[in-house]
Model the fold of this input.
Amino acid sequence: MRTVVLTKNTEPLLLCYPMINGHNRIWPPPIMEMRPCTFMVKKLLIATLSILLIYLIIPCYALLHARELGLTEQTVLTMGSWRTDDILQMRKILDLFEKSNPGIRVIFDPTPAAEYDAVLEAQLKSGSAPDIFYLRSFNISSQLFEKGYIEPLDDLPDLKENFTPHMLAPWRSTKSNTIYGVPFIATAHGIYYNKAIFDKLNLDIPTTWEELLSHARIIQDSGLIPFANASGEAWTINEIVFFNLAPNFIGGYQGRLAYLNGERCFNDTHMVAAFQALADVAPFFPPNHTLLKYSDTLQMFIQGQAAMWMGGSWDIPFIESESPAFGWDIFAPPSPKGSPQFITFHLDAGIGLNRSSKQKEAALTFLSWIARPESGKIMANELPGFFPMHKKEKNLHQNNENSDSTTKQLNQKDDPNSQKETLAQEEALVQGEGLNFEKAKLTQEQRSGSQHEAQNLILSNPHADTFLNLKNRYPTDIRLVWEKLREGKPDGYQLFNEAAVNVVNGQWSAKKAADFVQKGLSQWFEPATRCKKE
Done:
């Protein structure tokens, strides 16, 4: 029932009219549907005046006593991301920022990952983009910067002090050497395994590639599926299978650098061996794997139908939320017998500032906060499976009772002379001074320490901590094609994607796949045109 006030002479006349489902059927209502209200006019007027008085008094009181009440005028920032799964976790992180910066409110507004790149660029073109937003590493974000959409951050407090040149490289312009993003989250690759199945079949964690294949045969012979992975979505074969395995066959960072410098062709014996590893593991995928999508294969592992799952640290929260009826853990992809072992640790997302933002001062305050190691501590524990990239995080252990518990001191100190030499070499590489492969070589110890200095950390999530321990144990490198190989056409990512899927599906040999990649990249990537053929 609603009311309307009419006047007759000087006396107010209140009429009521019926409503349907809480809404007027038409407005204004027909007079014939209205009838006198049964409540007293004076009481209604007194109540109305009282409400109006309250509305007038409260704002005045709040303004006069804002300081005493702890009220502060807020600047609202919007934050774009492709991580729709992290809304609750990001809210906790942002709440902690807002607690120490009460004048700033940050609204997390993610877009589905598959749509993010196109949506963000459209928003930037139309002037409707968020104030701050996630930046993919290397080429995709650098294109946005070169188009003038992203604010330079060279002068941001705490940025250069807290990140090595290597960590900044994915968000540094190769044209102007300008930094335009704050490193935010990195992810690790590995192999998840069902501990119950391994125990039942008396299988230990494999230490060589040959032993992994032997385990897969035993599992398959037992009537179970060795690996849940599938090719129903092509990107999964490329990103979480091939890029998971490839470092052990091409020689990690040093091997990848050899391709980028033209020291190797993309169809050399190392790359052929990487594609052959893909061919060797494919028979242990589900029989109908060409029809299965990413979510299907994850469920296959979670339900205990498959013994292993090649994936990334970002899978931890989902698997935990599904509460599998068995114990599970992660091991690093093993290398061929006698070869060094590596793990893919990918510098995944930075955060940039919209150059057209009207709230730049507040945005810079937030970005400076993200650049501090203590913020990396918060992020790593609130987002299990995502790791900080700061130089010197302290021990990130948190107990369940006190998230701000005192951290343990690191027992090991980096050699300052070795670190200084390493960083100088990295800076030269990042700035494109043309060091050749031999001159740019770093020892495994130097590379592990300088690329990823977040050593000896302990995370509150045990599975995230397992990934972190693997990352600290083995030399690491980013995904094979992210640096430089996506800057031309045909895109290196698409070349490797097509090649990998065809190998897994039995359509191409490993040699044909490597030849396809080399031919495609040599159309525009200059090192591939002058590479040293075997």
Confidence is low (pLDDT under 50) at residues 1-45, 51-71, 393-455. The CA atoms of residues 61 and 69 lie 10 Å apart.
